[in-house]
Design goal:
By secondary structure, the chain is of the alpha+beta class. Helix content is about 40%, strand content about 10%. The protein folds into two domains: about 80 residues, no CATH class; about 35 residues, no CATH class. The chain is elongated. The protein starts with 7 loop residues before the first helix and ends with a helix.
Amino acid sequence: MRFPAPTREDHQRFCQNEGWEQIRDAQGRTGTHHITYKLVLPDGRVLRTRVSHPPDRSGYGARLWSHILRDQLGVDEAEFWACVRGAGSPDRGTPVKPEGAGVPARLVFQLIHDCGLTEKQVAAMTKDDALAALNEYWSRPR
């Protein structure tokens, strides 16, 4: 399918339609050469993109646009144009829900380096299992 040449205005409309947050500098201003947006994805990754200022009908070169789509927006052209035209946002997945309290990093370190457990053994443990293993290690006579 053939798509029209993208413009700065289309780039900005995409960001606004999908709900990207406009970033400001430390003084509360926006940049003078670019408008910077960020989007936090459900899996925790953060995408950032910069729309050249002013967001007008001027376009991007093919190589630059390919980079923007792939590396900054994380979409293909069909998803981009559907969003620009108001036909819905790209499918970014569903939020990752933690299954419970994980084992704190310091406890993992102690189990591996002090208790001599393998990473595989520690990965299979719940936080309570890990604490019990460490307590059992500490209660052994030296």
